[in-house]
């Protein structure tokens, strides 16, 4: 299941050193439960995945180390073929946010990823290797997952800011 794998390509571009206060205006009510610095993009009440918590270990990832991510939640509906994650990374330069990386990930494509993924409790774990060489900067990260149904229902949408260097 690739929902969490979305962090990996980000790391491949040059990985997280520390995760700090978001650049984007955020509402504490949208803070994702658990030991992390993620925010929901909007009221998550109707997201297909009801996230009960996401834990980062360590909470502030370091160069050359492994970031362990554990996500727990409840799928309100099955995840069906066509589900996609859009990962967008923007670099802050002055007051501007410049897009530097974008990737679309097919959630159901890949050897271990059988869809539909049935509704109910789900736990996803992912170890992400953080390379030693990282371009310095402050990056706004958006992870937007939509289900493969006709309405392209919002599966999950998260924002965070990563500071490299
Ligand atoms: C999400 O799941 C938890 C645990 O079952 C539940 O308490 C909570 O009400 C659910 N949230 C929503 C918005 O459905
Ligand atoms: C969630 O869905 C219900 C039923 O469609 C709707 O009434 C409600 O406004 C939605 N909530 C949000 C936050 O979108
Ligand atoms: C968050 O995780 C770090 C290590 O991953 C741990 O040291 C810290 O105590 C945790 N904080 C909370 C509030 O659980």
TrEMBL record:
Report the leader peptide range. Answer: 1-18
SUPFAM superfamilies noted in UniProt? E set domains
Q: Which UniProt keywords apply?
A: Lipid transport, Signal, Transport
List, for all copies, the residue spans of the domain called MD-2-related lipid-recognition: 38-162
Carries keyword Membrane?
A: no
- Which GO terms label this protein's molecular function in UniProt? sterol binding
What Gene3D superfamilies does the annotation carry?
A: 2.60.40.770
GO terms classed as biological process: sterol transport
Q: Which PANTHER family match?
A: NIEMANN PICK TYPE C2 PROTEIN NPC2-RELATED, PHOSPHATIDYLGLYCEROL_PHOSPHATIDYLINOSITOL TRANSFER PROTEIN
Oligomeric state and interaction partners are given as: Monomer.
Q: Which family does the UniProt entry place this protein in?
A: Belongs to the NPC2 family.
Any idea what job this protein has? Catalyzes the intermembrane transfer of phosphatidylglycerol and phosphatidylinositol.
- Name of the molecule in the record: MD-2-related lipid-recognition domain-containing protein
